[in-house]
């Protein structure tokens, strides 16, 4: 049910003019403005975000909590823009009240303040009441839904999907163009019956109109489904659409099958765009990563690494290689790889430490004009993890600046325990009875097919995709596969059939060292591989023939050169 705007009072406190709900005036304001001195003395104010020109605080006021957003971006242009179109806090105040008036479950705005001078707005404050016991939708899925037992997880997942579909339909039927429609701008809490309740936040960019037509509705659905595309199944997306469609019976849309296929194609494309936009985050300082640079060198590190450990890595990145307990894994002209142990937050963590050098003088010269191998491995590792392609998580990458030739760089990644590369794993099971060997090989083929299918579907190639660069980890009756040694990884705007076939041919040639790998196992691999693509993209028989031709050609070339095909 739509309701009217609540009554508000307007007053001047300190340098700002405030518009506030009556029952909040005394809680928030004194003669100087916001009660910062009192809140700091009581330890009630906690800064959540502090960016250039914008800060957010979380303040506890007895049994209630508010978020205070302060837009302090300087400059005459910003002041004029706030005067003409209103600051972000003013727009969020108005949009929040309008959303509540239209009956939507939005966070309650309680106050808005502006500091004006010479007819221009120089600062903007917004105060919004927090939704109690609520988490962002993505955080709720990770922290609440993820740890549940499978049966409870299935029930809550179904309820969450139903609640989300109905809310999106309600938003569109109410005529709300959100402007930033993603999971981070939805808060989820569980009511007393264990059912999820979802609330909207961050409405500064929202616009309001009559019920949204299909084209505008589709735009929001693509953004939302694209963000969750990799974490939902086809059945879940179908269920979401059926609930959404039932909640909007008057919406004029094309035929049902065309709509779902169209949403899937657009969501997949949008998901790839999200990945492209986020790839460079690992090279900057943000909430997940940190970049340190001084006279000693440059360090890229995961945010959860302790600061003291980051400093030690920057001081002496090769210390892990020389540790008495370090176990050598690979020693070559260009690479030294050891398995070591680091203390992280009081716990021992097994890591792989890799020192990279250029193999030839020409490559060393070219390395002066591009990122080092370790930083490229750091970048590709986090790019793959963002696409949910299993690989060892990079923890740190260091480029020392001290003069050395050839140039050195260091990469530290998590160590994957109880895993062998596909060659060693294949030789290990070769002596098992045929029934056991084929059963385990079939499970591994399915998992490897899913891994590489997902890699190619996300337009990632690996020019050295051989069995030695794939890890197989058995977990009870299950198998997990990982992609390692990322020097050959590339992410493309478009990945064609020839490139996909070339990658698979390199793997097929290396598996020729295992004569017990049957055509049935290879076919199982290709079926799992093709299932990661949209229906109709992969022609299995044509792919089989193309891979076989390329693998045979590669094997002949290796034999002419007198090299083993591994």
Summed up, the domain count is: 4
Count of DSSP H/I helices: 17
Going by helix content, strand content and strand pairing, the class is: alpha+beta
Write out the CATH superfamily name of the largest domain: Transferase(Phosphotransferase) domain 1
Strand order within the widest sheet?
1-2-8-9-7-6-5
CATH architecture of the largest domain: Orthogonal Bundle
CATH structural class of the largest domain: Mainly Alpha
* Residues in β-strands, percent: 25-35%
Low-confidence stretches: none
Rg result:
28 Å
Could you give a short account of the major beta sheet?
Answer: 7 strands, antiparallel
Account of the protein in words:
The chain is built from 17 helices and 26 strands. It is globular, with a radius of gyration of 28 Å. The termini are far apart. The chain has four domains: 9-129, Phosphorylase Kinase, domain 1 (2-Layer Sandwich), CATH 3.30.200; 135-279, Transferase(Phosphotransferase), domain 1 (Orthogonal Bundle); 284-414, Phosphorylase Kinase, domain 1 (2-Layer Sandwich), CATH 3.30.200; 420-463 and 493-560. Helix content is 40%, strand content 26%. The chain has a seven-stranded antiparallel β-sheet. The protein has a seven-stranded antiparallel β-sheet with strand order 15-16-20-21-19-18-17, with helices on both faces. Helix 6 (150-173) packs parallel to helix 8 (234-247), helix 7 packs across helix 9 and helix 14 (434-457) packs parallel to helix 16. With 566 residues, the protein is α+β, with helices and mostly antiparallel strands.
